[in-house]
Amino acid sequence: MSGFDLIIRNGTVVTASDLMRCDIGVRGGKVVALAEHLEGAQRIIDATGKHVLPGGVDGHCHLDQPMSDGSRMADDFASGTLAAACGGTTTVIPFACQTKGHSIISAVEDYHRRADGKALVDYAFHLIVTDPGPRVLREELPQLIADGYTSFKIYMTYDDLKLDDRQILDVLALAKREGAMAMIHAENSDCIAWLTALLESTGRTAPRFHAAARPMAVEREATHRAIALSELTEVPILIVHVSGREAVAQIQWAQNRGLRIYAETCPQYLYLTADDLGREGFEGAKCICSPPPRDKANQQIIWDALASGVFQVFSSDHAPFRFNDAQGKMIKGANAPFRYVPNGVPGIETRLPLLFDGVSKGRLSMNQFVALTATNVAKIYGLYPRKGTIAVGGDADLVIWNTRRDVTITNSLLHHNVDYTPYEGITVRGWPETVLSRGEIVVERGKPAGTPGRGQFLPCAQPEPARQKMPD
Ligand code: DUC
Ligand code: ZN
Ligand code: ZN
Predict the structure, then answer these.
(1) Are 233 and 176 in contact (CB under 8 A)?
(2) How distant, in Å, are the alpha carbons of 218, 242, 298 from that of 291?
(3) Which value, in Å, is the radius of gyration of the alpha carbons in the chain?
(4) Which 3 state secondary structure label does DSSP give 207?
């Protein structure tokens, strides 16, 4: 076959299942050939000595999401997708968030306006369901699911977002009926409120007490409850941002019983600990996220659970708030009690290199890396096989990795609009160098090369877990 737009030659092509030495032929934005010696292209990229992986799919990130406390996310779809691309991610799935008392369809319309004409790479939307009234359940959600918004997040905490158990059951029953995928933020809201009040009553309000207000029992209890609600409604769920031993144990217990419980973890649980919240002065606020990072032993448990298959998905949970900013971490001043500090850490660009370092250190295989960061994510959220793999007929979302390059992460290297990275000074081995989205080079040898606004919205099909029937 000849007449390609582009050939990537001599690379080692890696998918979730294979590692093969072959060329990749691209035409019309799609992979059209995988073979030993391809000829005849307008452009050839020599990938000798490099690995070619599918573009990452970030299944959990927050971009330009309206906030109820007056804070503002630093990354919109332009800077967020630029940073994603520079970190090897070619599809992002941020959240269109319903405001309580309002339509969820209008939240989706608003979110499209925020994204339109800005994204560098392709994007889909999850929904956040905060107010599942009869109209939302009977009309809006079925319509949205049919239109390609096939996954949604349910919160068990945060006053402006949380659902009670009965509401969760209603939403899970709907997910089952309509074939959608529910993601659950599992932390016990009342326990957090009670512990926060107790800490505040004794003046313990510094950033490090954020972790004390959300100990592992808070996450463990909610994780178990979410599993029970999934079991009652007989619908798969995915527990997001799992932080450590106790939630992992609940998920393993459920998986061993044959329940369809999927799970996600994030870089902050591999690289940060609660001690980082105690950094000098207010610096600890940079690492405030929920659930909070735990300790070194828990980091190891998360690495092990990634390797053993407890987790299917590795996301960034990129929640971009600037540190030195009155709309960011310092919204209530430089010494505000932890309860007022916007939750979240940036990580959309560093997600893949931080996990890849685990491949370099022998903790994970390269196939596992691809599965966790691209293939499983695309399957679970209805984007496979267009996204998440390298296969004939799929989009040519391809990343050429230099797996031998050592990079010390520093904020000035990154392309997000946040004024810090929690991973400052960490050295990783392996870096994405050249990134293609639908056959177009968007990052060339580490430098942004694409046109902002070229990214397309992706309606999602029915998620794979929702298609599988429960065993009798
Ligand atoms: N926790 C969330 O639930 N979302 C955004 C960031 C965070 O820390
Ligand atoms: Zn969450
Ligand atoms: Zn999140």
Answers:
(1) yes
(2) 9, 7, 13
(3) 21
(4) coil
Amino acid at 205: T
Write out pLDDT tens, residues 8-55. 999 999 999 999 999 999 999 999 999 999 999 999 999 999 999 999
CA 230 to chain centre: 22
Average pLDDT (281-289) is 97
Domain ranges of the chain: 56-371
Q: Is the pLDDT of residue 372 over 70?
A: yes
The CATH-assigned architecture of domain 56-371 is Alpha-Beta Barrel (3.20)
- The pLDDT confidence band at residue 472, using thresholds 50, 70 and 90, is very low
| Tokens describing residue 338 | 């932890």
Q: Which residues line ligand 1 (CB under 6 A)?
A: 62, 185, 289-290, 317, 319, 343-344
**Candidate from 58, 62, 156 with most ligand 1 atoms within 8 A of CB, to mutate:** 62
Q: Specify the long-range contacts of residues 135-138, CB closer than 8 Å, at least 24 apart.
A: 135/103, 136/98, 136/103, 136/104, 137/170, 137/171, 137/174
Ligand nearest to the CA of 317: 3
Backbone phi and psi for residue 448, each to the nearest 5 degrees, phi listed first: -55, 135
